[in-house]
Specification:
The complex is a heterodimer.
Chain A lengths: L3 H10 L2 E3 L1 H14 L4 H9 L13 H9 L13 H9 L2 E8 L7 E7 L2 E6 L5 E6 L4 E6 L4 E8 L7 H13 L5 E10 L2 E10 L2 E7 L6 E7 L4 E9 L17 E9 L5 H15 L10 H17 L4 H19 L4 E6 L12 E6 L6 E5 L4 E4 L9 H10 L3 E2 L5 E10 L4 E14 L4 E5 L6 E7 L2 E2 L2 E5 L2 E5 L2 H5 L4 E9 L4 E3 L2 E21 L5 E3 L7 E5 L8 E9 L1 E3 L2
Parallel strand pairs in A: 7-13, 18-20, 19-28
Antiparallel strand pairs in A: 2-3, 2-12, 3-4, 4-5, 5-6, 6-7, 8-9, 9-10, 10-11, 11-12, 14-15, 15-16, 16-17, 19-20, 20-26, 21-25, 22-23, 22-26, 24-25, 27-28, 28-30, 28-31, 29-32
Chain B lengths: L1 H11 L3 H23 L2 H17 L10 H24 L20 E3 L1 H10 L4 H11 L5 H8 L3 H24 L1
Helix pairs in contact in B: 1-2, 2-3, 2-4, 2-5, 3-4, 6-8, 7-8
Classes of the chains: A alpha+beta, B mainly alpha.
């Protein structure tokens, strides 16, 4: 006898077999009815008659992405100081790793420098090398797997004798700034070895150099702005390098392509619009990127290549398209407008005529230019500019439930720390998730102080189970369904003694660290009425915003420290 | 659900891979649903094929507001209704009174073959009033909530629940009496 339950199960699961051959035939017939991907159609319109005579590397786009970074690291200044500057200036060869942003598993750019030439490899670009000749303003990309060599011109650059020269110019420029200050921070251990640490600060930019105390040679240079973090690691000077590795002549048997030039002197709005269109259509499946910062450019490389293949472009078209994409990026990298530009395209679909995605003020213009999601442009006065808030941006991202390839959660965090009568800090950390892994199940949080203890975690008014996996590191068992429905604000309550903070003469020093990698962080301090402390300065300044997610923001967990200006009440 | 949303987004932008994934993911469920609703494998194949073809045609204006599976299932149910309505007109015999049809006649180019269990269930389902059959299959095959079924059938939620329960009870009785024979 069958029960109702059994019948229900049977209806759900009764086996059905479909013939794989006919499945395929039906699918093919359906695909034939599918309109040609409009991405591809539009792209084909982009492609101009090519000057390229031979088919070239399929990975050309990726290589161009990598090559485009060539001129980034030192363009905004990488200083050193009297002790550490000399070896750099005298160096004939150098080797360094460039890391952009603060994410784990980020692409590492390895550069070897010999005079005016750089040999570059990028960790997420396999089987490829890039040789950049700054003197000739040309780069050569070699794909060893496909045996192809692509030459790309770098037009419009100022005269650069060599890479070190570029660095020296940047140093001189920075040191001539009136606000430039250098602090010696003493010795710091890295991998058991002592290094002298120098910190240079100018406006919102901090540059830290770790140098060998004996030789004064810098080994690591880190540049942080509210928008970007670039680190040059494993820096070595005057090492033995094989000159043949810097040859601009393609190896025998390699197919050669001349892919035109990226003109760094040209930065038009229309080029930039083209870049946005390509980015949305090829890299982001119809959506604009979350940000257009350098970190995003590096990440986009492999996806760009894959997207172009899927769009059915020939290899020569891929190369040309990649150059066009890079050309538009020049607009923001060498921005010549007035003031700041703003990007708000995260979560916006290509074609959305209502959503402003980018706005800027051209030089000497009274009005601003706004680019919308359908890529039309309007002139507006300053009063009519859109004002995207952090919340709006997050909501957009969460509504689209963005999942990404990395196995980690990213969010924004709002902390409220209550200083209580018992001499403790009770912290409420509200984490709003903006990115989550493809298979979200457990999330790890790390508390900022070794004496901190996680008390409870709440999601959607329900307790979330958690367990300690290491000192100050906890594993949260998140209800996946809730996350996918967009209920993505998690409240973590944790506590620690106030004395865990470093006592200084003006009060306490707070280490600013989020519980997970974040794109924005706000900290508010609340002195409970009976806590026995009072502010030594204006109590209205109890909110600390080290950074707030914007178009440039990178994903970080730590962001320095700040002072807590309180004293015992008399 | 999240995967579906991303697939639809890519599909709307012309991704053939995304359509392939949607087709592979839901093809068999939709075929099973169509077999239950039409009790005819050839008809079921046509229904599912047409649903996918329409889905492609409407891709530019398609907006996913809920579950993709439920959306496609509703398309199948709508089409099955139309087919059944047309068939009723031709036969001039009310569908609910029609005798069970052979559900898996041999064809050289058949796309699907039903298991014995599926054939048995389909044969029993066809003996239920159509709206009960629809309520049961939409609930069990498409995973739709009673509220959604009620909306689809343009009745109250209680009526949809009642159709489901009555239909299931009748089905149990039919299947058990068949087993007893």
């Amino acid at each position: 006898m069958r029960s109702t339950k059994h019948i229900e199960q049977s209806i759900k699961n009764a086996p059905i077999h479909s013939d794989p051959r006919i499945n395929r035939a039906v699918l093919n017939e359906l695909l034939d009815q599918m309109p040609q991907a409009h991405a591809t159609l539009r792209l084909r319109r982009f492609i101009m008659q090519t000057r390229i005579s031979r088919l070239t590397a399929a990975a050309a786009a990726v290589i161009i992405v990598a090559a485009f970074i060539a001129l980034y690291p030192f363009t905004s200044g990488t200083p050193t100081f009297a002790k550490v500057i000399q070896p750099i200036l005298n160096a004939r060869t150098a080797s360094l790793d460039i890391l952009i942003g603060s994410q784990e598993n980020q692409a590492v750019i390895h550069d070897e420098v010999m005079g005016s030439r750089i040999r570059r490899t990028v960790s997420n670009v396999k089987h490829s090398d890039i040789i950049i000749d700054l003197e000739q303003q040309k780069l050569l990309t070699l794909n060893h797997a496909e045996k192809t060599a692509v030459y790309i011109g770098l037009g419009g650059l100022d005269n650069i004798e060599n890479y070190v020269e570029l660095l020296r110019n940047a140093i001189i420029r920075l040191q001539s700034e009136p606000d430039f200050q250098v602090k010696e921070e003493g010795l710091q251990k890295i991998d058991g070895q002592d290094y002298a640490v120098f910190v240079a600060e100018i406006e919102q930019e901090t540059i830290t150099i770790w140098a060998d105390p004996e030789t004064a040679l810098p080994v690591r240079i880190e540049q942080k702005t509210p928008n970007m973090q670039i680190a040059c690691d494993n820096v070595q000077f005057d090492i033995e390098l094989d000159e043949s590795q810097f040859s601009m002549v393609a190896p025998d048997g390699y197919a050669i392509q001349d892919a035109g030039a990226i003109d760094f002197g040209k930065s038009s709005e229309s080029d930039f619009i083209e870049t946005l269109r390509i980015w949305a259509e090829i890299i982001k499946d119809g959506q604009f990127p979350d940000s257009i910062n350098l970190e995003e450019v590096v990440k986009a490389g492999p996806k760009f290549n894959q997207g172009m293949k899927q769009a059915g472009l020939t290899t020569e078209q891929q190369t040309e398209l990649a150059v066009r994409w890079a050309q538009g990026l020049v607009f923001i990298r060498y921005f010549k407008g007035q003031g700041q530009w703003h990007y708000a395209g995260a979560g916006v679909e290509l074609g959305d005529a209502e959503a402003p995605i980018f706005w800027y003020r051209p030089k000497d213009s009274e009005t601003w230019r706004i680019i919308y999601g359908d890529l039309h442009v309007e002139n507006v006065t300053e009063e009519d500019l859109p004002e995207p808030t952090l919340t709006e941006k997050q909501t957009k991202i969460i509504r689209s439930s963005e999942q990404w390839a990395q196995q980690k959660f990213v969010g924004t965090e709002k902390d409220v720390w209550h200083i209580t009568a018992s001499g403790n800090i009770v912290a409420h950390s509200d984490i709003t998730l903006t990115k989550m892994p493809q298979n979200p199940s457990v999330m790890y949080v790390s508390l900022p102080y070794s004496s901190a203890v996680l008390e409870s975690v709440i999601l959607d008014d329900k307790e979330v189970p958690f367990s300690m996996v290491a000192k100050v590191r906890y594993e949260l068992e998140l209800p996946v369904e809730n996350l996918l429905e967009g209920l993505a604000t998690i409240e973590c309550i944790w506590s620690m003694p106030l004395e865990a903070l470093v006592k200084v003469d003006y009060g306490y020093r707070i280490r600013l660290q989020a519980l997970i990698p974040v794109e924005g962080f706000v900290l508010t301090i609340v002195l409970e009425p009976d806590c026995g402390f009072e502010y030594t300065k204006d109590p209205s300044q109890t909110q600390i915003i080290p950074f707030q997610g914007d178009e440039f923001s990178s994903i970080v967990m730590e962001f320095g420290s700040c002072g807590l200006l309180i004293q015992k009440r008399n | 659900m999240l995967e579906d949303r991303l697939l639809v987004l890519r599909f709307k932008h012309g991704s053939r891979d995304a359509f392939c994934r949607i087709y592979e993911k839901y093809r068999d469920d939709l075929l099973r649903l169509a077999v239950y609703l039409s009790s005819d494998t050839a008809l079921a194949e046509d229904i599912v094929h047409d649903v996918f073809a329409n889905f492609i045609r409407s891709c530019r204006r398609f907006q996913l507001t809920g579950s993709l599976k439920a959306y496609l299932a509703k398309c199948v149910a709508n089409r099955a209704r139309n087919v059944n309505r047309a068939s009723r007109h031709r036969q001039t015999v009310p569908l609910d009174e029609a005798a069970p049809v052979a559900s898996d006649c041999e064809r050289p180019d058949r796309w699907i073959s039903c298991s014995e269990e599926l054939r048995l269930l389909s044969g029993a389902l066809v003996q239920l009033p159509y709206h009960q059959r629809e309520a049961i299959t939409l609930r069990l095959q498409a995973g739709m909530k009673f509220r959604q079924i009620a909306h689809f059938q343009n009745v109250s939620t209680k009526t949809a629940q009642s159709r489901y329960r009555c239909g299931l009870e009748k089905l149990r009785s039919l299947l058990n009496s068949e087993m007893a024979q």
